[in-house]
Design a protein that fits this description.
With 757 residues, the chain is an alpha+beta fold. It has six domains: 26-91, Ubiquitin-like (UB roll) (Roll); 94-168, Ubiquitin-like (UB roll); 174-259, membrane protein fhac (Ubiquitin-like (UB roll), Roll), CATH 3.10.20.310; 265-342, membrane protein fhac (Ubiquitin-like (UB roll)), CATH 3.10.20; 351-419, membrane protein fhac (Ubiquitin-like (UB roll)), CATH 3.10.20.310; 424-756, membrane protein fhac: a member of the omp85/tpsb transporter family (Porin), CATH 2.40.160.50. The strands form seven sheets. It has a 16-stranded antiparallel beta barrel with strand order 16-17-18-19-20-21-22-23-24-25-26-28-29-31-32-33. A hairpin with a 5-residue loop joins strand 8 and strand 9 (251-259). The radius of gyration is 37 Å and the shape is globular.
């Protein structure tokens, strides 16, 4: 037993001796082999062991891992030779060039933006694998899940390589079908229109909406939620949204499982104000929800914002408005109490802006309703975000706030933008029943030199109308909330068909404008121009022939605009009201006063049915014995009164039939816009309308027996189709006059077409 015990001890000592002996030695020298570009001292600097240190297996292991993690080496080995430590490295090559092969659907520029590796950067397998994953993700966002990427290396001299990504794009992964489970109130077809993802159809060849995108699927869930909450379904939720590959792996089936819940109506709305010196009854007019109407979460959010803004204007900078929703499930009514409390006192420490390469910081900063030192206001931040987006300079504009490290009552507002192209070069052809065929071209920069300035040069050439214009706008003149700009223009109109003459005008204008508040704007414009009536037909009216020659006009005008529409391009609700006054006579040969009014109101009758009611009125009168030129008078027809030809409603010479124009006009229109049952993305919409209006007498010819004129009401009814085509807007109207005079000129078919490419 003693012999066995002694033998075991001896074996243990012998096994332990190499490590013990090694730890007792010192590293006298570190020898680096295999390096070409990397200096020896650089290699040694990464190591955890240095010359003169005791040898340690742990330090050698850490040195090995550190050298690998630098990304400079494809292989590293460390061995001990006597008192020397030999480090053998194989350097990663340097990338000479990166190429993409086989990519047709995605441009090289997009791939270069997505990948991280660049020429003159060290090649590593890990980085290449990460870039392959990024390229595949990019193709999947474009609906191509069958895409494959194979990186290839071409060895060059001096340890350099060319890197080529061989891409097989595969077929796009279309959405074959979209299904809904659990929906009772809305049909599948209606919910499909809500989603941004669409089912595969032949007419979607210009869109990628019918390709599968997992990020878009997440967005669609939110769109469904917003849609139901807007229409009274306060308990709605999306249980799941699942994408499944088709059996042939050529597309996807999307299935949304929803729980609609009960549909609620608005009940009572009250304000519980817990602020000193505030009477909650003063805010009651802001409670726009109507008991008995369907609950609308968007409207509740608007009320919260309006309350916050109103309290801010009353001096309550720190408020917290929270709607407390009380569901009456038995009567299916939602009663809401808006609790108004004093919020935390937080101030804006600074505003940080990132992502803007070309656009100057001040262009973004001046759109903020807050500045450093102001009381933090969530409503003003939301409005600032919308104003930045409305500039049209950015693809993305995110505004967030984070607590400051300097003080608990300070916050930092962060703005992250992604710029987009703001230059426009366009060419176009078109035709309309008013101006005939035309060709146009324009060049525009909406963010000149990153300063937010707008510069535009445009021209058009047509058989009946030719024009050229140069305009410039500075939205913040002298860094004030005051826009300023100028226009230089020239216009030729061939009025032979209407009044037997041609009209040339050239001029220039300077203008300025400012917002009195968010929905009220005033603009002022000074204009000088020279008009010439020429090429008067021999058989023209005597009243036209006496207008031959040139005249000059120096005028100043102001415009007040109240705009409460939800959209300026395609309004569905709200109203707009405009007053325009123009005075000529500050020099020049023309002396007159013109006053115009216009108004429009929009009502949403149904989800896609919009009622629009609009009207205009105008009057012009000369000073003293001065007569108003024929080019300044009012004419109706064409776009202003459908069913009648251009200048078809006007005082008219009995013998020649020439339109002479009137000194006042009034028009009105009632129009209903509705869907045609076609897919919404095709851009087709129908409309039914009635237009009506009248034009007054013409200057001192009121009692002339040679002129047909009547201030009676004219009216027409009609239907039309509009199409937002990929090549430009198209409008076709068919209208029939139901009230007219015998000397009026009507027009059954009215068509406009324009395209840009």
């Amino acid at each position: 037993m003693g012999l066995l015990r002694n033998t075991a001890v001896l074996v243990a000592v012998l096994l332990a001796m190499p490590a013990w002996a090694q730890n007792m030695g010192s590293v006298r020298q570190i020898v680096v082999q295999g390096n070409q570009r990397v200096e020896v001292e650089t290699v040694k600097s990464y190591m955890a062991i240095a010359e003169g240190d005791p040898y340690s297996a742990d330090r050698v292991d850490r040195s090995l891992k550190t050298l690998f993690n630098t990304g400079l080496f494809a292989d590293v080995s460390i061995r001990q030779e006597g008192e020397a430590l030999v480090v053998r490295v194989v350097e990663n090559p340097i990338i000479n060039r990166i190429a993409f092969e086989g990519n047709n659907r995605v441009k090289d520029e997009q791939l270069e933006t997505e990948t991280q590796l660049r020429p003159r950067v060290v090649y590593t397998r890990t980085k290449v694998q990460n870039d392959v994953k990024r390229i595949l993700d990019l193709y999947r966002r474009n609906g191509r899940f069958a895409a494959t990427v194979e990186p290839k290396l071409i060895q060059l001299e001096q340890n350099r390589v060319d890197l080529a990504y061989e891409i097989s794009e595969g077929e796009p992964s279309y959405v074959k079908r979209i299904n809904f489970v659990g929906n009772r109130f809305y049909r599948d077809s209606r919910l499909r229109e809500v989603l941004s993802t669409k089912e595969e159809r032949w007419y979607r060849f210009l869109s990628s909406d019918d390709t599968y995108d997992p990020d878009r699927l997440t967005y669609d869930r939110e769109l469904l939620r917003r849609y139901y909450l807007k229409h009274g379904f306060a308990d709605f939720r999306v249980v799941s949204g699942v994408a499944e590959l088709t059996p042939d792996r050529g597309g996807f089936f999307l299935t949304f499982t929803v729980e609609e819940g009960e549909r609620y109506k608005f009940g009572t709305a009250t304000i519980n104000a817990n602020l000193r010196d505030l009477d909650g009854n003063e805010l009651n007019p802001l409670l726009t929800s109507v008991p008995g109407e369907w609950y609308n979460a968007d409207q509740v959010e608007d009320i919260v914002q309006n309350l916050t803004d109103a309290l801010g204007s009353k001096g309550f900078a720190f408020v917290d408005v929270r709607p407390q929703v009380n569901r009456d499930r038995e009567n299916k009514v939602i009663n809401i109490t808006y609790d108004v409390h004093e919020g935390p006192r937080v101030y804006v420490e600074r505003i940080d802006i990132t992502g803007n390469v070309r656009t100057l910081d001040k262009v973004i900063r001046r759109e903020f309703r807050l500045v450093e030192g102001d009381a933090f206001n969530t409503a003003k931040v939301r409005r600032s975000r919308q104003r930045i987006k409305d500039l049209g300079f950015f693809d993305k504009a995110e505004v967030t706030n984070i607590p400051s490290d300097s003080a608990p009552d300070r916050t930092i507002i962060k703005v992250d933008v992604q710029e987009k192209s703001t230059g426009e070069l366009s060419f176009g052809v078109g035709w309309s029943t008013v101006v005939g065929p035309l060709v146009e071209a324009s060049i525009r920069e909406r963010n000149l030199l990153g300063r937010g300035q707008d510069l535009k040069l445009s021209s058009s050439l047509g058989t009946r109308r030719t024009s050229a214009e140069l305009s410039f706008t500075e939205p913040y003149f002298l860094d004030r909330k005051l826009s300023a700009g100028f226009d230089i223009f020239g216009l030729t109109r061939k009025m032979q068909r209407e009044s037997s003459y041609d009209h040339n005008t050239m001029g220039a204008a300077v203008r300025s404008g400012y917002y009195i508040h968010d929905n009220l704007r005033q603009d002022v414009r000074y204009q000088v121009k020279r008009d010439q009536v020429e090429n008067v037909d021999d058989d023209a009216s005597i009243f036209v022939r006496e207008q031959m020659g040139s005249s000059s006009t120096s005028s100043i005008q102001q415009t007040l605009t109240w705009d409460y529409r939800d959209s300026r391009m395609e309004p569905t609700e709200g109203y707009v009201f405009k007053i325009n006054n123009e005075l000529a006579g500050l020099g020049g040969s023309q002396k007159w006063m013109r006053n115009n009014l216009s108004a429009a109101q929009y009502f949403q009758l149904d989800e896609q049915v919009i009622l629009g009611v609009s009207g205009t009125a105008g009057v012009i009168s000369g000073f003293g014995d001065e007569k108003v030129r024929i080019t300044e008078r009012y004419y109706l027809g064409g776009d202003s009164l459908r069913g009648f030809a251009n200048s078809g409603v006007s005082p008219r010479d009995k013998s020649s039939g020439d339109a002479l124009g009137g000194l006042w006009q009034a028009t009105g229109s009632v129009q209903v816009k509705f869907p045609l049952g076609l897919p919404e993305e095709l851009g087709f919409a129908g409309q039914a309308f009635t237009d009506f209006g009248s034009v007054g007498s013409t200057e001192d010819y009121a009692n002339s027996a040679t002129i047909n004129q009547a201030s009676s009401l004219r009216a027409s009814v009609g239907v039309g189709v509009t199409w937002k085509s990929p090549m430009g807007p198209v409008a076709l109207d068919l209208a029939v006059p139901v009230m007219k005079e015998s000397f009026d000129e009507d027009e059954f078919f009215h068509f406009n077409f324009g395209t840009r490419f």
